[in-house]
């Protein structure tokens, strides 16, 4: 990639509320949305992949999968009946 600084404009359509929320997150992290998008594209170009793993799994499933990485946070039951009672089943 050419190391000379070039200035070009990237025009995308995005939900205004999503843009505002993204700007706020970037601001809280100490940079602007342009920098965040540049970081995203830079990472994508260097690794030839997205800097995250896209998924269509529901958020509840993703949270459950995260819990498997932290077994100390899981509830433990002495009997199946105790588990069912805790689940109000």
The major β-sheet equals:
none
**Poorly predicted regions:** none
SSE class: mainly alpha
Oligomer: single chain
Helix content: 40-55%
Task: Provide the domain count.
Answer: 1
Rg calculated over all Cα atoms: 21 Å
Question: Overview of this structure, please?
Answer:
- This protein is mainly α and 89 residues long.
- It has one domain.
- Helix content is 49%, strand content 0%.
- It contains four helices and no strands.
- The radius of gyration is 21 Å and the shape is elongated.
- The model has no long low-confidence stretch (mean pLDDT 89).
Write a brief caption for the model.
The protein has 89 residues and is mainly α. The chain is built from four helices and no strands.
Summarize the SSE layout with pairings.
Elements: H1 16-28, H2 33-47, H3 59-67, H4 80-86
Annotation keywords:
89 residues, mainly alpha, 4 helices
